[in-house]
Amino acid sequence: MKKILIVEDEFELAENLKDILQVLGYQVTAIISNGRDVLLDLEMGIPDLIIMDILINGNIDGIDLAYKIKDSYQIPIVFLTGYTDKVYLERISNILYEGYLLKPFTLDRLKSCLYLAFKEFEKKRKAVPKQKTLKIRDKGFLVPVPINEITHLEADGLYTKVHTLNKPYTVRDILKDVAEQLPSENFIRIHKSYIVNKDHIVGFNAKELNVGLKVVPIRRGFYKELKKMIIADE
């Protein structure tokens, strides 16, 4: 059963949407009305899709929140709104999203939108090239680093440290952009600043993980999900 997070500040509408989604066979993980609580909720667990209202409570709207989410997580997002203003449409066009649902919507429109959103997201995932090496520029040379030798990635401001079995490299790209060049089935984002190669995980508990010769933190609430991933690979 696919899990959906609803981000909506109109309580009655959100409850109605929840009922409809449950009838359609989806599990609604939560109804949240502001960006801050959404980001905290994602630290506890990742839904399969987010239905995102554009105008929500708090200091940021749904579009800015979607940017923050896409920087850290690979989650399909369907925007939900009653507005068709050009300003909103232009802002949305600059972000990767998987669907747009205009209020009021019909049951058939909702079903179609969710179906296409999951299809679009899966197509994007498959479109990412599965490279056997990561090209890294080191001291003026272009070095093809074998992906299976990469133990983990570490965010360092606008740079990313790529740790391998032999030595670390520093790449002049943010963590998200480097991660998009790697196969998602092998590399897991366990913390906002760390992505690890599952093949190099030595052990882990609820707070931290041993990868290669280093100990790195795990984001709060991720232990159970990580445990399922590791067991599934055995």
Q: Could you give a short description of this structure?
A:
This is LytR/AlgR family response regulator transcription factor. The protein is of the alpha/beta class and 234 residues long. Helices cover 34% and strands 32% of the residues.
Please render the helix and strand layout as text.
Blueprint lengths: L2 E5 L3 H13 L3 E6 L2 H10 L4 E5 L8 H11 L4 E5 L4 H8 L5 E4 L4 H21 L5 E6 L2 E6 L3 E7 L2 E6 L3 E4 L3 H5 L7 E5 L2 E4 L3 E4 L3 E4 L2 E4 L5 H11 L1
Parallel strand pairs: 1-2, 1-3, 3-4, 4-5
Antiparallel strand pairs: 6-7, 8-9, 8-12, 9-10, 11-12, 13-14, 14-15
Number of strands: 15
Biggest sheet statistics: 5 strands, parallel
How far apart the termini lie comes to 23 Å
| Main sheet strand line-up | 2-1-3-4-5
* Helix/strand class: alpha/beta
Strand content: 25-35%
Order of helices and strands: EHEHEHEHEHEEEEEHEEEEEH
Q: In angstroms, what is the radius of gyration?
A: 19 Å
Please work out how many helical segments DSSP would assign: 7
Helical coverage, percent range: 25-40%
Low-confidence stretches: none
Overall geometry comes to globular
Average pLDDT: 88
Tell me what you see in this structure.
The strands form four sheets. The protein has a five-stranded parallel beta sheet, sandwiched between helices. A five-stranded antiparallel beta sheet has the order 10-9-8-12-11. Strand 6 (about 135-140) and strand 7 form a beta hairpin. With about 230 residues, it is of the alpha/beta class. Helices cover about 35% and strands about 30% of the residues. The protein is globular, with a radius of gyration of 19 Å. The chain is built from seven helices and 15 strands. The chain has helices at about 10-25, 35-45, 60-70, 85-95, 105-125, 175-180, 225-234; strands spanning about 5, 25-30, 50-55, 75-80, 100, 135-140, 140-145, 150-155, 160-165, 170, 185-190, 195, 200-205, 210, 215. The longest helix has 21 residues, at about 105-125. It starts with a strand and ends with a helix. Keywords: Phosphoprotein. This is LytR/AlgR family response regulator transcription factor. InterPro entries: CheY-like_superfamily, LytR-like, LytTR_DNA-bd_dom, Sig_transdc_resp-reg_receiver. Pfam families: LytTR (PF04397), Response_reg (PF00072).
